[in-house]
Structures are given as structure tokens and as C-alpha cells.
Write a structure and sequence with these properties.
about 30% strand; 2 helices; 7 strands; 3-stranded antiparallel β-sheet; 4-stranded antiparallel β-sheet
């Protein structure tokens, strides 16, 4: 039996603790993590910090496999999603209290694609 990772549970717990204290929860995300959707114009040093306060986001879902919400960035609503493994930290803006997480390795199938691209041999055919 596979063990369910504790990372999404810890993120949700810290998020709820921050909100319950009436602070502003933020997620720091590894912007290079594969298959995520974030506003790339705000990425700095391969990370992005997102305000996930209930007043700043809509349709927030913090599931075990994927986090999702809608938010406005420079007045334009965007959908944002990423797996819990992309979260580097969850913290309160007001005092920095929260929890950092170790950077997770990227999924193996993505590494294989990056390290060993499939090369097709040239193919010639006779044209009549």
C-alpha cells in the first residue's frame, strides 16, 4: 500500500492556521515545476509568491493532488494550479510565520523527456 504524502495536509493546516489568526496566507512556488499554471510575469529567481487570502482568490481547492484557484493579476482573472510538490513554503505575510518545504524532485517522466529527447532518423522517399 502506498503512503499518502503528508505535504498537502501540512500545507492545508498551516494555511488554516494563518487564516484563523487573521493574517494573510502566501504560497511560495517553484516556478520551474512541470505542468503548473501560474502568472509567469511575476516569477523571480524561478519562484513566485502568491497571495492566497480568501478575499484575494476564488474557488480555492487544496486537494491532495492539485491546488487550484482563480485570482486577479493586474486586473485580469487567471486560473492558477500546481501540485502540492511545487510549494516551497506557506507563510503569513505579516510576520513570516509558517513552514518551508524541501524542494521536490520533478516527476520522472518529465526528466526522461528532458534528458533523452527522441530523435527521429532522416527519412527519404521517392517522389514520382
Amino acid at each position: 500500500m502506498d503512503v499518502i504524502p503528508n505535504r498537502p495536509y501540512l500545507i492545508r493546516a498551516i494555511y488554516n492556521w494563518v487564516v484563523d489568526n487573521q493574517w494573510t496566507p502566501h504560497f511560495q512556488i517553484d516556478a520551474d515545476y512541470p505542468n503548473i499554471q501560474i502568472p509567469r510575469q511575476f516569477v523571480e529567481n524561478s519562484t513566485i509568491v502568491l497571495n492566497v487570502d480568501p478575499s484575494a482568490v476564488r474557488q480555492l481547492e487544496l486537494n491532495n493532488d492539485n491546488f487550484f484557484f482563480k485570482a486577479r493579476f493586474q486586473g485580469v482573472e487567471q486560473e492558477v494550479f500546481f501540485p502540492p510538490e511545487a510549494v516551497i513554503a506557506v507563510f503569513a505575510r505579516e510576520n513570516g510565520q509558517g513552514m518551508p518545504f524541501p524542494k521536490e524532485p520533478y516527476p520522472a517522466d518529465k526528466k526522461v523527456k528532458q534528458e533523452k529527447p527522441i530523435k527521429k532518423k532522416p527519412h527519404l522517399s521517392i517522389v514520382k
